# Entry
Amino acid sequence: MAYPLQALRTFVEVGGRGSVKAAAQALHVTPGAVSQQIRLLEDRLGVVLLTRERMGMRLTAAGASFHNKLLDAFRQIDQAVEALEASKGRRTLTISTVATFAASWLVPRLGRFKQLHPDIEIRVEATSELVDLHRDRVDIALRHGLGDYPGLDVVPLMAPVLIPVASSEFLHEHQAVIREVQDCLNYPLLHDADRADWPLWLKAHGGEADERADRGSAFEDDFLLIRAAEAGQGLALVPQAYAQNEIAAGRLVQVLDKPWPARFAYYAVTRPGAADRSEVRLFMEWMLAEAAP
# Structure
């Protein structure tokens, strides 16, 4: 009896991620479609593979054994595809990172890498989802965090420096006078998602946060934060590397020369041994050289 490949792949994703929602995001389908594929597979097999718990989905004993075998099978498929591409003389790299880093730092520089290595094809996946390098067909993940990624090879890439910026229109409209860090609290502030950067920045430069440091709009993505500052909605702390073009073009103004290293850094993360491939090694070396300045 033949079994639908899509249902098998969906089961592998749900079993590995422990969540229908996470699997749906990884497969770029709806949670309802994922649930339907799992029901289809269980009906065809006549076996319960997953049980729903308060924290997500758990593999049954039969499901866990089946999942391990399928995982090995899909790995072999991936290896076969990679071998075929290699036999055709194609060298490809898939890079996964968040959209902001891709748009503001990585993509504008990729032309230089292509000039050095025109035979290597680059595919950039810009997603906020955390890819699993042991399952997903991703060669290098550029992750933003504290560098703790067990079972993977981790290379520090850069630690973003945050600077306070605003649009010139905002500064003119508010007749802003900002000479000390504490002066920033007199104006509307824009925040990152956890609203932690302004209090930490103030403390790092001898200031003191009060209730004003928590007010204002918050944004999940640095790109949105920069756009809000450009639109004159307030003062923002943004990564200097992301705002260089806006500052050079006059769309943003750095209001104080008070840089501050963010708590989280960017890391290049690969499967163990991935750098043995020449294209992975070359791309890693190029990124480190680009990040050095």
